[in-house]
């Protein structure tokens, strides 16, 4: 299957700082990527849809000023958690679709905010 | 609502078959998916089924779809200890996916 990578895989930061997470499609181009959040022992919740060359579409309840998404190219989307707080600690996973019926996920980024 | 429902836990012995069930909500979902997540890792696409199919088989995996009841199941034949993981079913909502809470499969030897 297609490969989606994320960087970093694990990040620890102090409260109030910002953290950038990268999502890359390695062997295909993706005009659309998705960002999910997963709390321990829970399901994935869609946060936003990242669109190359245009603004991201955020799900209800997700603060767009806090979770900045930039889809700079057809293979890269970034999620920046601004002014992170301990409640933002979570597992962030991105995904991309190489075709209409397949969606592949990155390995995830574990964010811990102290 | 948009809840995808799954049983939370399943325990089987090595060599047995595992059946993980899922109930979805949107009858217009074009594709339904099964993903596997090992501890601390991302999601691995196992298989998917198009909504106009009843069954799909892929090696040890068999997916059954009952569209009338909005019920999806994943059968793993000859379950191995390496199959121990969390299994998520997902339905499509536009271009994104809506996931169930996941079923933890525990395989004992």
Describe, in short, the structure shown:
The complex is a heterodimer of chains A (114) and B (109). By secondary structure, chain A is mostly beta strands.
Structure in words:
The complex is a heterodimer of chains A (114) and B (109). With 114 residues, chain A is mainly β. Chain A has no helices and 11 strands. In chain A, strands 2, 4, 5, 6, 9, 10 and 11 form a 7-stranded mixed beta sheet that branches. The model of chain A has no long low-confidence stretch (mean pLDDT 92). By secondary structure, chain B is mostly beta strands. Chain B contains no helices and 11 strands. In chain B, strands 2, 4, 5, 9, 10 and 11 form a 6-stranded mixed beta sheet that branches. In chain B, a hairpin with a 2-residue loop joins strand 6 (55-58) and strand 7. The model of chain B has no long low-confidence stretch (mean pLDDT 92).
Oligomer: heterodimer
Radius of gyration of chain A, in Å, reads 13 Å
Task: Describe the global form of chain B.
Answer: globular
How much of the sequence of chain A is in beta strands? over 45%
Helix content of chain A: under 10%
Number of strands of chain B: 11
Q: How far is the first residue's CA from the last residue's CA of chain B?
A: 39 Å
Question: How confident overall, as mean pLDDT of chain A?
Answer: 92
Calculate Rg of chain B over CA atoms: 13 Å
- Which parts of chain B are unreliable, with pLDDT below 50 for 5 consecutive residues or more? none
Query: Helical content of chain B, roughly?
Result: under 10%
Characteristics:
heterodimer, A: 114 residues, mainly beta, seven-stranded mixed beta sheet, four-stranded antiparallel beta sheet, 11 strands, globular, B: 109 residues, six-stranded mixed beta sheet, five-stranded antiparallel beta sheet
How do the helices and strands line up, and which of them pair or pack?
The complex is a heterodimer of chains A (114) and B (109).
Chain A: E1 4-7, E2 10-13, E3 19-25, E4 32-38, E5 44-51, E6 57-58, E7 67-73, E8 76-81, E9 90-99, E10 102-105, E11 109-113
Parallel strand pairs in A: 2-11
Antiparallel strand pairs in A: 1-3, 3-8, 4-5, 4-9, 5-6, 7-8, 9-10, 9-11
Chain B: E1 5-6, E2 9-13, E3 18-23, E4 31-37, E5 43-50, E6 55-58, E7 61-66, E8 71-76, E9 85-93, E10 96-99, E11 103-108
Parallel strand pairs in B: 2-11
Antiparallel strand pairs in B: 1-3, 3-8, 4-5, 4-9, 6-7, 7-8, 9-10, 9-11
């Amino acid at each position: 299957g297609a490969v989606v990578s994320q960087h970093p895989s694990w990040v620890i930061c102090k409260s109030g700082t910002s953290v950038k997470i990268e999502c890359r499609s390695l062997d295909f181009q993706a005009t659309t990527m998705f960002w999910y959040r997963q709390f321990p022992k829970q399901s994935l919740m869609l946060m936003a849809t990242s669109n190359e060359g245009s603004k991201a579409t955020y799900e209800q309840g997700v603060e767009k000023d806090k979770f900045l998404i930039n889809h700079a190219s057809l293979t890269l989307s970034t999620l920046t958690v601004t002014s992170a707080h301990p409640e933002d600690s979570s597992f962030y996973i991105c995904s991309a679709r190489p075709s209409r019926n397949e969606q592949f996920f990155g390995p995830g980024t574990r964010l811990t905010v102290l | 609502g948009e809840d995808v429902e799954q049983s939370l836990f399943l325990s089987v012995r090595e060599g047995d078959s595992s059946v993980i069930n899922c109930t979805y909500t949107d009858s217009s979902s074009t594709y339904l998916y099964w993903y596997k997540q090992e501890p601390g890792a991302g999601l691995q696409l196992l298989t998917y089924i198009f909504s106009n199919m009843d069954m799909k088989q892929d090696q040890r995996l068999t997916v059954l779809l009952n569209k009338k009841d909005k019920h999806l199941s994943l059968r793993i034949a000859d379950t191995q200890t390496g199959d121990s993981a969390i299994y998520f079913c997902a339905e499509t909502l536009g271009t994104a996916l809506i996931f169930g809470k996941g079923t933890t499969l525990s395989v004992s030897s």
